[in-house]
Amino acid sequence: MSNEQTLNDTALDVVIVGAGVSGLYALQHLNGLGYKVRVYEQGGDVGGTWYWNRYPGCRCDIESLEYSFSFDEELEQEWHWPERYGTQPEILRYLNHVVDRYNLRKDIVFNCSISSATFNNNTNQWELVSKDGKHITSQFCIMATGNLSTPRVPDYEDLDVFQGKWYHTGQWPHEGVDFTGLRVGVIGTGSSGVQSIPIIAQQASHLNVFQRTPQFSLPARNGPMDTEKESLHKASYRTLREAAFNTPFGIAGYPPPTHLALDVTPDERQASYEEKWAEGGSISFLYTYKDLLVDKKANDTAANFVRDKIRQTVKDQNVAEKLIPYDHPIGTKRLILDSGYFETYNRDNVSLVDIREAPIERFTSEGLRTTDGKHYELDAVVFATGFDAMTGALSNIDLDNGAGLTIQDKWSNGPRCFMGLAMAGFPNLFMITGPQSPSVKTQMILASQQHTDWIADFLEYMRHNGFTRFNVDQEAEDAWVIHNNDIADSTLYPLANSWYVGANVPGKPRVFMPYVGGFDRYKKACDALARNGYPGIRLSNDIGTLSNGD
Ligand code: NAP
Question: Whose CA is nearest to atom 14 of ligand 1?
Answer without folding.
Answer: 385
